[in-house]
Amino acid sequence: MKKVILHPLFLSGLFIRLGLIFLVLPLAVTEWYVPFLSSSLSQITLDPWSTWLNQGGDQVAFPYGYVMWFVFLPLTLLCKLIGVPLIFGYGFTLLVADISLLVVLSKFLPKRENLLLAVYWLSPIVLLASYGLGLNDLIPVFLLASSLYYTQKKMLFPAGVLCIAAVSAKLSMILALPFFLIYLFHNRA
C-alpha cells in the first residue's frame, strides 16, 4: 500500500479531493446532512430522526440508516469539539471511506495499482458524485466491497456483518444479496 500512497496519481487524486472538500459546498450537504448531524450531536438520542423532525427539520434530510449515521458521527463530533465547520467532518469522513475503498479494491487487484489509480481514484464520476454533489455512496460501497473481500477469503461471519452494515447504510445495497447467495451456492466448500 505504501507504493500506492506515494504514487503521483494517488497524490494528484488526494489533492483534487482535498480541494473539493475545502472549496465546494454541495447543496445536499449544507441544507440537509450537516444540519441533521449537528442536531443529532446537540441532543444525543438513539432516534435522531424523530428529534430532527420534532425540531421542524426536513423529512428528506438524512434518508440513511444507523450505520451511515454512526460512520459520520466521529469526525463530525471532532469538528464540533474543536470549533471547525461540520462540513469538514462530513468531507473527511467521505475521504476516509474513499481511501478505505481504494485499499479494498487494491486487494482485489494486486499489482494493478496504475490501473486502479487511473480508473477508480481519478474517476470524474466518483469525484463529482461524492465531493461535488455530496452523495454518500462511498460508505455503503466500501462496506459491500469489504464484504465481498471477506467472502472471497471464506470468512463468512465478517462478510455477513459487513453486508448487513452496507444494507443498513443504504437499502439499495440489498441488490447485491442474490449475487452473494449464488456465489455461496456454487462454492459450498
Secondary structural class: mainly alpha
Number of helices: 11
- Radius of gyration from the CA trace? 18 Å
Task: Report the biggest beta sheet as strand number plus sense, adding barrel if it closes.
Answer: none
What is the typical, i.e. mean, pLDDT? 91
Distance between the termini: 31 Å
Please mark out the parts with pLDDT under 50 across 5 or more consecutive residues, or reply none.
Answer: none
Strand content: under 5%
What global shape is seen? globular
For the secondary structure, the number of strands is 0
Succession of helices and strands: HHHHHHHHHHH
**Which percent bin holds the helix content?**
over 70%
Q: Could you please describe the fold and organization of this structure?
A:
The chain has 189 residues and is mostly helical. It has eleven helices and no strands. α5 packs across α6 and α9 packs antiparallel against α10. It is globular and about 50 Å long. The mean pLDDT is 91.
